[in-house]
């Protein structure tokens, strides 16, 4: 019996060491234990925010960032991707990657993959606008696990992305100040961690309705130090919404108040509206917010401060504060 107790303690210590996750950070906060969350196709799944994570998978994700795919699209290959592999220089030098062009990385959310709508939508907006390298990060190995596990593995995947971009910089000379990292939901916190891995040197980090459940008080969440300019677009930030409702970036935009969106009746629609709005601004750069002094002004639509364009593809963009922007019901909003 004593031997079994020692074995259990040893195994617990191993797991804690193998997965350097600040477990106390992942608290459910105001959320109920069970919530409904959508996958990349819009199907709802019941999530237990107090579920025991899959520590074996988290250990694997921590040890092997090469689990993730980096899929390159350029104007020379708009629809057929080329796979870039970390620590394989030939995969980059033989591809269409052009270090003289800006690089945009897109990271999807939970239960999603390279084919989820966010990826082709933002990819096509960028390639239709200018000659850039678009890299779609497919992190399905973790993203297809239960939410409690996926959330805890996000920092490791983000660090892996940062290591991949360091490799890309070393092989091609592509500067960090021409890189823009864009992530949706869990992917928003992922790209934040990637920017942190790079010491905040990337030109821009954009969080599209950063995930709320398990992230409200989480030290691993997206923050203003993750890039030269960090922006968040909040579209489903009510107390039980899928997105985080508080300011986390240099500039935080709250379209239509940030809780519910015109033309939407479901939280899923509100949540997805973030990447739909962003893609439209890449093409048109037409949605402009007014700076607000506080969240009361955001919710009452009484912001009268400085104006700042939401989203877009400007690598030299700057600004700080809370911003309210009002949009239409349908694309291009």
UniProtKB/TrEMBL annotation:
BP GO terms, sorted: lipid catabolic process
One Gene Ontology molecular-function label: serine hydrolase activity
Keyword S-adenosyl-L-methionine annotated: no
InterPro entries associated with the record: AB_hydrolase_fold, Lipase, Lipase_N, TAG_lipase
Organism: Bombyx mori (Silk moth)
One GO cellular component, as annotated: extracellular space
Record family assignment: Belongs to the AB hydrolase superfamily. Lipase family.
Keywords, in A-Z order: Secreted, Signal
One Pfam family it belongs to: Lipase
Range of residues in the leader sequence: 1-18
Domain Lipase: residue ranges: 65-311
Subcellular location: Secreted
Superkingdom in the source lineage: Eukaryota
Name used for this protein in its record: Lipase domain-containing protein
Primary site of residence: secreted
């Amino acid at each position: 019996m004593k031997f079994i107790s020692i074995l259990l303690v040893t195994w617990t210590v191993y797991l804690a060491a193998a997965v350097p996750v600040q477990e106390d950070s992942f608290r459910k906060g105001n959320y109920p234990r069970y919530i409904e969350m959508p996958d990349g196709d819009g199907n709802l799944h019941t999530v237990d925010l107090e579920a025991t994570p899959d520590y074996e998978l988290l250990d694997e994700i921590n040890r092997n960032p090469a689990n993730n795919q980096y899929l390159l699209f350029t104007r020379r290959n708009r629809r057929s991707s080329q796979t870039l592999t970390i620590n394989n220089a030939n995969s980059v030098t033989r591809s269409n990657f052009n270090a003289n062009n800006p690089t945009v990385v897109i990271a999807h959310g939970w239960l999603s993959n390279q084919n989820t709508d966010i990826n082709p939508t933002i990819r096509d907006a960028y390639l239709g606008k200018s000659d850039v390298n678009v890299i779609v990060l497919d992190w399905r190995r973790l993203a297809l696990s239960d939410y409690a596990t996926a959330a805890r593995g996000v920092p490791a995947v983000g660090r892996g992305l940062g290591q991949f971009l360091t490799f890309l910089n070393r092989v091609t000379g592509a500067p960090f100040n021409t890189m823009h990292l864009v992530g949706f939901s869990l992917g928003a916190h992922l790209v934040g961690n990637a920017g942190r891995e790079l010491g905040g040197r990337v030109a821009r980090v954009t969080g599209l309705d950063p995930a709320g459940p398990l992230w409200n008080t989480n030290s691993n969440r997206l923050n203003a130090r993750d890039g030269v300019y960090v922006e968040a677009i909040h579209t489903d930030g009510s107390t039980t919404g899928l997105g985080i409702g508080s300011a986390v970036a240099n500039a935080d935009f709250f379209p239509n108040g940030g809780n519910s969106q015109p033309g939407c009746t479901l939280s899923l629609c509100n949540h997805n509206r973030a990447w739909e709005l962003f893609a439209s601004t890449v093409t048109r750069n037409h949605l402009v917010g007014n700076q607000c002094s506080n969240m009361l002004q955001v919710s009452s639509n009484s912001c009268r401060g400085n104006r700042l364009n939401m989203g877009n593809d400007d690598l030299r963009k700057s600004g700080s504060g809370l911003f309210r922007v009002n949009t239409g019901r349908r694309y291009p909003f």
